[in-house]
Design a protein that fits this description.
- By secondary structure, the chain is mainly β.
- The protein has one domain (3-188).
- Helix content is 12%, strand content 35%.
- The protein has helices spanning 3-12, 170-176, 183-188; strands spanning 40-46, 53-58, 68-73, 78-82, 93-98, 104-112, 115-125, 131-141, 149-152, 166-168.
- β6 (104-112) and β7 form a beta hairpin.
- The radius of gyration is 15 Å and the shape is globular.
- It starts with a helix and ends in a 6-residue tail after the last helix.
- The relative contact order is 0.23.
């Protein structure tokens, strides 16, 4: 689907407060990730029209709240690793997104310098009961209402949500819900792109 359709979906469907939401459906088999073998993959996908991958990796062990790191790029050339000065941080936020009808999703966010990065996954059914799924990264300058860029996760087929090349670990949602809630996402949903 086009970015314009997704922007209309985000604007048209009101967000239900996080306390009323608990989606957490597991997706297809794990996509390749940039996480180390001893890390747990919370979210990972290939970026459309590129060879890049985005991954959210949880530190080994069962710390609560879990420490994590974000990695974007390729295995031979990671372009952004957050945090860059230490191996892991608990400065991530987790938000459950619920829209009208059977549409819901999850979002992980963090701020690096003056930029917020939002990893998101939304799935549901349209009015004809066809599955849909949107996932990717939104890049939003701090203090701005709109995102400056959106990178979509690659779709391997347009037929079902399970054909998306996205991995979101529903078992880890319980651990990451101990992260602080992103009040912007909870109150307004995902930002539109300019």
């Amino acid at each position: 689907m086009s970015s314009r359709f997704f922007d209309m979906l985000r604007r048209a469907l009101p967000v239900v407060p996080l306390a009323l939401c608990m989606s957490g459906q597991a997706k297809a088999a794990p996509a390749p990730s940039l996480c180390a073998p001893d890390e747990q993959v919370a979210f990972s996908c290939h970026i459309a029209r590129s060879h890049k991958i985005v991954s959210l990796c949880l530190a080994p062990g069962k710390t609560n709240p879990p420490a994590a790191r974000y990695v974007f790029g390729t295995s031979s050339h990671p372009e952004l690793i957050y945090p860059s000065n230490t191996k892991y941080t608990t400065n991530f936020q987790s938000s459950y997104l619920m829209y009208m009808g059977p549409t819901s999703g999850e979002a992980y966010s963090f701020i690096n310098a003056d930029t917020k990065y939002i990893l998101y996954e939304i799935d549901g059914y349209d009015m004809d009961h066809n599955d849909f799924m949107y996932a990717g990264i939104l890049i939003q300058p701090v203090g701005q209402l709109d995102a400056s860029a959106e990178l979509h996760c690659k779709s391997t087929s347009n037929e079902t949500i399970n054909s998306m090349d996205v991995y979101l670990d529903s078992d880890l949602l319980d651990r990451t819900k101990n992260w602080q809630v992103d009040s912007d996402l909870a109150d307004h949903g995902l930002p539109s792109t300019k």
